[in-house]
Amino acid sequence: MITIPYLTALSTYFSYGLLFAFGQFRDFFRKIFDWWHASNLQGYAPICLGLEDFYTRRLYLRIQDCFGRPISSAPDAWFHVVERYSNDNNKTLKRTDKINRCLNLGSYNYLGFAASDEYCTPRVIDSLNKFSASTCSTRVDGGTTIVHKELEERVANFVGKPAAIVFGMGYVTNSAVLPVLIGKGGLIISDSLNHNSIVNGARGSGATVRVFQHNTPSHLEKVLREQIAEGQPRTHRPWKKIIVVVEGIYSMEGEICKLPEIVAICKKYKAYVYLDEAHSIGAVGKTGRGVCELLGVDTTDVDIMMGTFTKSFGSCGGYIAGSKELIQYLKFTCPAHLYATAISPPAAQQIISSIKVILGEDGSSRGAQKLARIRENSNFFRSELQKMGFEVLGDNDSPVMPIMLYNPAKIPAFSRECLKQNVAVVTVAFPATPLLLARARICISASHTKEDLIKALEVISQVGDLVGIKYFPAEPKKQQQEGKRTIKLE
Amino acid sequence: MYVRAVPPTDLNKNTEWFTYPGVWTTYILIVFFSWLIVLSLFGSSPGTAWTVVHLSHFFVTYLFFHWKKGTPFADDQGIYNGLTWWEQIDNGKQLTRNRKFLTVVPVVLYLIASHTTDYQNPMLFFNTLAVFVLVVAKFPNMHKVRIFGINADH
């Protein structure tokens, strides 16, 4: 539930209206200019229809220097950001050779495996020497090495399911598996804020897609009842299959899914549950096993568990975990398994080693320390930001915290001012978020020390005052209250 | 002071911004302030200013609601490319609160414009024509109708 001050909502609409109007004027004059100067491409159809790239040309390109900043080191807690400059008002950006050492608040480095690790990196280099960087083949042809077999067993064990299958890319896992699991005549009910990969996979499957209000189990029940009663469109026959797709932690809100209620509803109406744990696997839960462990849901109740290795394990790729029959079926039919290159062996070894560290099988307690540290860091950071008066979304224990900005002008202001003070943040605007609700998303990592967090808090507080995003009243500091009390006693 | 924003279930990013709180107020405030600006720039009588606002409101809303088709970004792969903004809003459902509000606004503007010009003739004709076109374009029966093939797809 996001609370917006009413005047901010009005001014945000007005700002977007103004930007839109200016963009339309410039397009109008550009059209006249182009008609005047004939082009040498007579007879060719244009690549984009006039309206399609309006947002990219007229709004995104104006603040292009806040997105896509190149870095030149590993994305650890501190990293090197390459400086860029522009001679034509941000239409093109040129790289320089200078770098800035900045605090990293944007990488999905939840457990700190993104940089070189004392247990994982030697083993990854060994595996690189032994198996080389790529299998140069699909899984079915010659790309299944012993590393892949071990990885699939370990992932299944870690997540708590009988079997698992691993793919080379996380986005592809969703968009290539959903079309295989369900087709025309089936129904997919997905949360309204699901990731683009799920939306793509659902559209590609050919099934009917319905959306329920974000994280509202009562609305899910209403949609399920309505759809089961109506049946397929036009023929009104019963649905062949119903899959409900939810995410563990929503990456733009930092909210944790209400999994127990949703699983109860799906059991009642006999729908399958597909849980996308991209941001929650390895980051939440007592031993890092994700939202099921955190919320106390039995893993046999969730039919298909999906996740990615990019966030907590410092590698790349995605997995699907489920029953043995499901995984066997996927190995025969999923195009990402049959035709796409297998996951690279050093990357797979990184995942195996990081799972061993998390579970403590490497002989040290670093895994448990990392999990405790990320929990403490997230809770500390979130509560401090809320005390300063920022509007921060997300539940407790979630390492993702978006700070609401709202106005389109505050997005580049916040981003650039923070970069000047050597703090790198990621700002997200329309169309990844709704129009009104632009935000700066902070991802806390276990490799952030307390000093790093305090420096970040100072910088964000200063920039927040300058830009004007402290929408809630700040809580008065405790020391001032104690000072007043001692004066009164005297 | 504060309002709550519930994320809607509309997947079309081009129209879902219209379901958040504050849009109606912003629309009315923009119309009112443009009347003040016209009044101060041209120094005309209030009636002429309202007529100018009404007619420019007609041009702008007809262009953006009923003429331009598609969405300003390529993410949705062109599934709305044949639909104008009016046909996309609320997922094509007719007679919702947003649609009723947007139908009432031109009529109210027409009443104000014709009242303040005392129903005199050249302005009255243009105002009536404008409101007639706008209200007919918003009828539920005109959903996806292209008269004489004007503005139809290629």
Automatic annotation (TrEMBL), chain A:
<comment type="pathway">
    <text>Lipid metabolism; sphingolipid metabolism.</text>
</comment>
<keyword id="KW-0472">Membrane</keyword>
<dbReference type="InterPro" id="IPR015422">
    <property type="entry name" value="PyrdxlP-dep_Trfase_small"/>
</dbReference>
<dbReference type="InterPro" id="IPR015424">
    <property type="entry name" value="PyrdxlP-dep_Trfase"/>
</dbReference>
<feature type="domain" description="Aminotransferase class I/classII large">
    <location>
        <begin position="102"/>
        <end position="460"/>
    </location>
</feature>
<keyword id="KW-1133">Transmembrane helix</keyword>
<dbReference type="GO" id="GO:0004758">
    <property type="term" value="F:serine C-palmitoyltransferase activity"/>
</dbReference>
<comment type="similarity">
    <text>Belongs to the class-II pyridoxal-phosphate-dependent aminotransferase family.</text>
</comment>
<keyword id="KW-0812">Transmembrane</keyword>
<protein>
    <recommendedName>
        <fullName>serine C-palmitoyltransferase</fullName>
        <ecNumber>2.3.1.50</ecNumber>
    </recommendedName>
</protein>
<keyword id="KW-0808">Transferase</keyword>
<dbReference type="GO" id="GO:0005789">
    <property type="term" value="C:endoplasmic reticulum membrane"/>
</dbReference>
<dbReference type="GO" id="GO:0030170">
    <property type="term" value="F:pyridoxal phosphate binding"/>
</dbReference>
<dbReference type="GO" id="GO:0046512">
    <property type="term" value="P:sphingosine biosynthetic process"/>
</dbReference>
<dbReference type="InterPro" id="IPR004839">
    <property type="entry name" value="Aminotransferase_I/II_large"/>
</dbReference>
<keyword id="KW-0443">Lipid metabolism</keyword>
<comment type="pathway">
    <text>Sphingolipid metabolism.</text>
</comment>
<dbReference type="GO" id="GO:0046513">
    <property type="term" value="P:ceramide biosynthetic process"/>
</dbReference>
<feature type="transmembrane region" description="Helical">
    <location>
        <begin position="6"/>
        <end position="25"/>
    </location>
</feature>
<dbReference type="GO" id="GO:0017059">
    <property type="term" value="C:serine palmitoyltransferase complex"/>
</dbReference>
<keyword id="KW-0746">Sphingolipid metabolism</keyword>
<keyword id="KW-0663">Pyridoxal phosphate</keyword>
From TrEMBL, chain B:
<dbReference type="InterPro" id="IPR007203">
    <property type="entry name" value="ORMDL"/>
</dbReference>
<feature type="transmembrane region" description="Helical">
    <location>
        <begin position="101"/>
        <end position="117"/>
    </location>
</feature>
<dbReference type="GO" id="GO:0005789">
    <property type="term" value="C:endoplasmic reticulum membrane"/>
</dbReference>
<feature type="transmembrane region" description="Helical">
    <location>
        <begin position="123"/>
        <end position="140"/>
    </location>
</feature>
<feature type="transmembrane region" description="Helical">
    <location>
        <begin position="48"/>
        <end position="65"/>
    </location>
</feature>
<dbReference type="Pfam" id="PF04061">
    <property type="entry name" value="ORMDL"/>
</dbReference>
<protein>
    <submittedName>
        <fullName>ORM1-like protein 2</fullName>
    </submittedName>
</protein>
<feature type="transmembrane region" description="Helical">
    <location>
        <begin position="21"/>
        <end position="42"/>
    </location>
</feature>
<keyword id="KW-1133">Transmembrane helix</keyword>
<keyword id="KW-0812">Transmembrane</keyword>
<keyword id="KW-0472">Membrane</keyword>
